[in-house]
Amino acid sequence: MDTADKTIRLTTAQAIIRYLAAQYIDIDGEKTRVCGGGFGIFGHGNVPCLGEALYDHRDVLPLYRGQNEQGMGFAAAAYAKYHLRQKFMFCTASAGPGTANLLTAAALCHANRLPMLMLCGDTFLTRLPDPVLQQLEHFGNPALGLNDSFQAVCRYWDRITHPAQVIQTLPAALATLLDPADCGPAFIALPQDVQGWTYDYPLSFFEPKVHRIRQQMPDARELEDAMAALKVAKRPAIIAGGGVQYAKAVAELTQFAEACGIPVIETIAGRANLLADHPLNMGPVGVTGSDSGNWLAERADVILSVGSRLQDFTTGSWTAFAQDAQFISLNTARHDAGKHRALPLVGDAKLGLRALTEQMGGYRAPGAWLDEAQAERRKWDAYVAQNVKPGNRPNSYAQAIGVVNALCDPRDRVVAAAGGLPAEVTANWRTLDIGTVDVEFGFSCMGYEIAGGWGARIAQSELEPAQDTIVFTGDGSYMLMNSDIYSSVLTGKKLIVLVLDNGGFAVINKLQNNTGNESFNNLIADCPTIDAPFSVDFTAHAAAMGAIAERVANPAELAEAFKRAKAADKTSVIVMDVDAYEGWTTEGHSWWEVGTPQVSAHSSVRNAHEDWERGRKKQRRGV
To answer: How far apart are CA 501 and CA 525, in angstroms?
Structure first.
């Protein structure tokens, strides 16, 4: 049908949802909707108009009812991460505190370069009823409101002040969500009156459109510079970041590393780029790394970083690498490609690695260098095997990780986030299949674990319904955000949640002690304002939300409980106490810069400060 001159009268809200329903993406030759649906909590700011539009599209854009807007955003982030940023979910929240709850999730998506679309209520454009319920009034700037705060945590931001604007705004927002170099959250503020205003939209605006992720070839001159540096390397190394997976470049990374004999170290986001037993996998690098990975980083003379933003946990606050090491950074984002005096190689990782492989002219890294690196990896493997062994010390994160690692299916997805578990999973998990580990550490956000697990499970059920999503969380994160256990039960999206209880915020207590401070206000037992410490009955709590729940006393019991959870058809929560002091992985850490007091009445704090400053001597200087 020729729609060039035809129009249809719709409300602003109806036009937005109709447009989203008509957007598709080509993924490996198959067409699917680029928007997988959304997460929503309705209020006066979005239910009358946007709710009406969503109801009429409920069959093609499923709307998942959240329990907390922050959790909805975390679930959307995990959904996008599972789909390698090729699909996204929207979140809708009412005007006021509902929208404010999305700020943390937007920041997480911004830090991790993940797509999420936010459709949020706003105050009335006419201002006739001002001040309205939940409105923030700025006396000298009546146009300024809560939604403006999202400009700091979004890649794209707009406020719709006329229905015709969506014709420009929606394509621009989608272009941002799908841009590999500029990917991040998009926010559209929807004044409550404008949502219901009508406009005669061209029917052509709603014709189905198929999107494709851009693949940009690196500049030929930048390739020449990169190859010149690599060809003279005596001790080359590759850093494999999360961008390797987003570019679907795992095969190309492996081929390049094998062709040139270059050992590979992984970032937290790139933790499942190579299988654990690949002969070129030297383990994770940095603050939460491995002895073998950090050994390699410290000695490498030329480092090819692929798809990493080189944050401080990867670089050990820039002490993990030699000060004179030459970086080459292959990245779609110009900002990341030029960090720390790197030779920039701006472009798609898949295309860039293919070009490097074709043009390296038979270069091979010195065999002795790889032999030494593999010897270090064998030492690290032996350490991990002992570290995860049940009974080697009091109950620990590492032991729990080892139990699950031994019993899970290779394609099961592991989700973890802030606290001590990102370090423990990164160090101790042995990757069984590519792209199966989601450790959220770009924003290090407590509360991501269960909500993110729910979002990951929604995505996983679209492609791998037989597999499980396994969540590792501490008691602190559980207490912060646990309501999506209920969401998973309501929606039939099964999770296996391991709650490892160490009596508070134990990893920060460890940092507190390591910097010479006494334990204070982190472990429940060390809070002076608590009269009678007691343990939360996490099993009773989880069971009250509909989950199968049980407490185990040790790793042996955990193994049996995990088998039961695998066999179950709904969400299971398994609780085990772990030691707050003796249960940590003690090896594999590089220096990390934290602020310590230059003066203190406590000698332990002064001594720790001096010790910390000694580590700074290795810090690279640069931008």
So the answer is: 13
Domains parsed from the chain with CATH numbers: 7-211 (3.40.50.970), 220-380 (3.40.50.1220), 388-577 (3.40.50.970), 595-623 (no CATH)
Helix, strand, coil percentages for the chain (3-state, nearest 5): 40, 20, 40
Phi, psi angle pair for 324, to nearest 5° = -100, 10
Structure confidence by residue, pLDDT tens digits, 399-426: 999 999 999 999 999 999 999 999 999 9
Q: How far apart are CA 154 and CA 107, in angstroms?
A: 7
- Over residues 40-94, the pLDDT tens digits come to 999 999 999 999 999 999 999 999 999 999 999 999 999 999 999 999 999 999 9
Provide the angle, in degrees to the nearest 10, between the axes of the packed helices 484-491 and 448-463. Answer: 20
pTM confidence score: 0.97
E strand or H helix that includes residue 420: none
**Cα separations (Å) of 183 from 84, 269, 425, 443, 470?**
11, 16, 27, 16, 27
* 141 vs 132: CA distance, rounded Å: 16
Is residue 510 within 8 A of residue 486, CB to CB? The reply is no
Task: Report the candidate in 186, 197, 132, 129 with the shortest Cα–Cα distance to residue 161.
Answer: 197
Which of 423, 394, 378, 420 lies closest to 555, judged by CA?
A: 394
Gyration radius of the chain's alpha carbons: 25
pLDDT of res. 623: 54
Q: Write the DSSP symbol of residue 554.
A: S
The C-alpha atoms of residue 373 and residue 66 are separated, in whole angstroms, by: 47
DSSP 134: T
At 420-468, the pLDDT tens digits run: 999 999 999 999 999 999 999 999 999 999 999 999 999 999 999 999 9
Q: Which residues contact 171 (CB under 8 A, 6 or more apart)?
A: none
Residue 367 has φ and ψ, to the nearest 5°, of -60, -35
Closest CA to 487 of 129, 39, 47: 39
Angle in degrees, 0-180, between the axes of helices 555-567 and 397-407, rounded to the nearest 10: 40
DSSP characters over 487-550: HHHHHT---EEEEEE-SB-HHHHHHHHHTTPPP-SSBGGG-TT-SS-----HHHHHHHTT-EEE
User: Which regions of 347-475 does DSSP assign to beta strands (E)?
Assistant: 413-416, 437-439, 469-474
pLDDT of res. 362: 87
pLDDT at 1: 53
Distance CA 549, CA 140 (A): 54
Q: Is 283 helix (H, G, I), strand (E, B) or coil?
A: strand
Contact predicate 187/157, CB 8 Å:
yes
Q: State the pLDDT confidence band at 4, using cuts at 50, 70 and 90.
A: low
Which among 486, 564, 575 has a CA at the least distance from the CA of 536? 575
Would you list the DSSP string of 205-254?
Answer: GGS-EEE----PPPPHHHHHHHHHHHHT-SSEEEEE-HHHHHTT-HHHHH
